[in-house]
Design brief:
single chain; 274 residues; alpha/beta; 9-stranded parallel beta sheet; 41% helix; 15% strand
């Protein structure tokens, strides 16, 4: 039986205007054992000023590792979403993120296919995605870093589409980062979908969806940045936990919510079920 651990995506401090270190400290204070930091290319004004949690991959990777050691948490993975359909962006970004993850001990990098170019056909997009994932897998395999493909955009919004992307490259490092909220908002049954991918699961975004958002957006969108507190929305977390306990590997539930208060309610709810 697989073990389940509780972590949180640092998006929960996005509106607090604080740096990554503050988010890691807050996650530890709330009782999370894992964090999922976000990284970006180049330099970004708010991050450099300490008003945003994302970390530049031009920084020393040990910045994240030191923060995790200081506050007694681990990295479940890195949030490295990049448009796989746009290799001029995604190839070097994802390869650098994989090297970054390896240096800090983050076992997974998470991504989706991203918004597609306006001029490409579907067939062309799959060729472009295969190229990107081939390049990324060659960097990830010798470093034992897993690549989690997430349901979030135009092709990954269905079980068949996500399977097709994940299967473009025959590599043991390419798996699934399942997102409970995105799968639900896309109009699918998240529990049946999770059962379908559980043996390929490498990470899970624990995202709940408020009833109001469900009524307004389900079947009309392919995902959402963050959800409400786990337990406040439509997702049956006991059922999700039961499925994940039958997965092939231990799984971190990386909570995706929008505020510190939601993060606190989420861990309280999930701990009660575990």
């Amino acid at each position: 039986m697989a073990s389940i651990h509780l972590g949180i995506n640092l998006e929960f401090v996005r509106h607090n205007d604080k740096p990554m270190e503050w988010g890691v400290a807050k996650a530890a204070e709330l009782g999370y054992d894992y964090v999922e930091p976000m990284v970006h290319w180049g330099r970004e004004l708010l991050s450099e000023a300490g008003y945003f949690h994302s970390v530049s991959m031009l920084d020393d990777p040990l910045r994240i590792k030191r923060a995790c050691i200081k506050y007694g948490v681990k990295c479940s993975g890195l949030s490295t979403h990049t448009p796989l359909c746009k290799p001029e962006i995604s190839v070097e970004y994802l390869k650098q993120a994989i090297r970054f993850a390896a240096e800090i001990g983050a076992p997974v990098v998470n991504t989706d296919e991203g918004p597609k170019p306006g001029w490409t056909t579907e067939a062309e997009d799959y060729v472009l995605m295969r190229y990107t994932l081939c390049e990324a897998a060659q960097v990830a395999e010798p470093r034992n870093i897993l690549i989690g493909i997430e349901p979030h955009q135009q092709y990954s919004k269905t079980p068949a589409g996500l399977d097709r992307i994940q299967g473009l490259v025959n590599s043991p490092v390419i798996g699934i980062n399942f997102d409970t909220g995105n799968s639900y908002l896309g109009g699918e049954d998240p529990y049946a979908w999770l059962e379908r991918v559980k043996d390929r699961l490498v990470h899970l975004h624990a995202k709940d969806i408020a009833l109001e958002q469900s009524e307004a957006e389900r079947g009309k969108v392919t995902g959402t940045p963050v959800g409400c507190a786990c337990g406040d929305g439509v997702i049956d977390w006991a059922r999700v936990i039961g499925i994940c306990k039958t997965a092939k590997r231990d799984i971190v539930f990386s909570v995706e919510c929008g505020t510190v208060d939601q993060a606190e309610r989420s861990i309280r709810h999930l701990r009660g079920l575990l």
